[in-house]
Amino acid sequence: MNKIVAKQELATKIKLVEIYAPESVEEAKPGQFVILHIDEKGERFPLTIVDANISKGTISLVFNEVGKSTKQLGILEEGDDILNLAGPLGNPSEIENFGRVLCIGGGVMIAPLWFVASALRKAGNEIIGVIGARNKDLLIFEDEMKAISDEFYITTDDGSKGYTGLDFLNKILSQKNINRVVTMGSVVTMKAVSEMTKSYGIKTMVTLTPIMVDGTGMCGCCRVSVGGEIKYACIDGPEFDGHAVDWNLLVSRKRIYLPEERISSLLNERLGGINP
Ligand SMILES: Cc1cc2nc3c(=O)[nH]c(=O)nc-3n(C[C@H](O)[C@H](O)[C@H](O)COP(=O)(O)OP(=O)(O)OC[C@H]3O[C@@H](n4cnc5c(N)ncnc54)[C@H](O)[C@@H]3O)c2cc1C
Ligand code: FES
């Protein structure tokens, strides 16, 4: 059992939980994820590590309530237990002194990007931070990202705060001598950023979040194509070169279980968060 020691609502349907996980915390690195199993009847689902506090023995996770399992986690309160937390899994993000790194986070993934960007900053990089969301009310980790960025920008899809959309990045990419780009967000955002940076020849790392089951390379569920080769995001990634990812395959594979996920979520709502 792993106890939730703190919980916070960051925006509508976006929550942070700090979980006591002494067996995971020492190894937890930016870019890695854990797999949660809330109770015996629940499914296993991955969330990316947002912070690891070795002295408290806790790791923090930020999640969007999108379906059955994430809504179930959202119902739990401080003091509640989850059945199991496995990890850290996956490879850590590459952290070196690259020079000037443009770190772009979108939606709920701004939070784990902050963990990566903080490590890059500690490694001596100059950080240009960009956070984006559909609208200003969904922006999270703004103060945290600002604090570790040498330059900081905000963008929203509807223009309610900062720039509108991603076009403004062209100015940064063409004028700032960027050595590397790291982006975490929706497939749409990471694909758009990768397409943009390709024309500038700037290495761009993305974090792929395909559907995962075991998270240990056994089931084949998280298969992606990178540079024409089959990779498994859970053991070969989740960080990959964005210029080599087959984005269309990723999108089609993420939609495979959509009907079943909708039914499961609806059943769960009808039963008030109890597993059907
Ligand atoms: C390595 C990895 C790291 C992740 N890190 C985070 C994180 O830090 N924070 C976070 O909020 N989410 C993260 N996700 C996505 C998260 O695992 C899914 O949102 C979750 O499993 C959905 O489960 P559910 O039962 O609540 O929803 P479901 O009922 O399974 O699905 C509801 C909706 O969410 C979509 N969905 C399901 N799985 C994914 C997925 N893997 N990626 C995107 N959309 C999905 C479905 O297509 C559907 O539209 C990560 C996924 C992976 C593979
Ligand atoms: S989740 Fe099963 S192989 Fe990656």
Describe this structure in words.
This protein is α/β, with parallel strands linked by helices and 276 residues long. The chain has 2 domains: 2-89, Beta Barrel (Elongation Factor Tu (Ef-tu), domain 3); 100-254, Rossmann fold. The chain has 9 helices and 16 strands. It has a 7-stranded antiparallel sheet. Strands 11-10-9-8-12-13-16 form a 7-stranded mixed sheet, with helices on both faces. A hairpin with a 6-residue loop joins strand 3 (33-37) and strand 4 (44-53). Helix 2 (68-75) packs parallel to helix 9. The longest helix has 13 residues, at 110-122. 40% of the residues are buried. Flavin-adenine dinucleotide binds next to strand 4, strand 5, helix 2 and helix 9. Residues 212-215, 217-222, 232, 234 line the site of FE2/S2 (inorganic) cluster.
Q: In a nutshell, what does this entry contain?
A:
With 276 residues, the protein is an alpha/beta fold. The protein has helices at residues 22-25, 68-75, 110-122, 142-148, 169-175, 187-198, 233-236, 247-254, 258-270, and strands at residues 2-11, 14-20, 33-37, 44-53, 58-64, 81-82, 84-89, 100-106, 126-133, 151-156, 163-164, 180-184, 204-207, 223-226, 229-232, 239-241. It has two domains: 2-89, Elongation Factor Tu (Ef-tu), domain 3; 100-254, Nucleotide-binding domain of ferredoxin-NADP reductase (FNR) module (Rossmann fold).
Features:
about 280 residues, alpha/beta, Elongation Factor Tu (Ef-tu), domain 3, Rossmann fold, 2 domains, seven-stranded antiparallel beta sheet, seven-stranded mixed beta sheet, 16 strands, binds flavin-adenine dinucleotide, binds FE2/S2 (inorganic) cluster
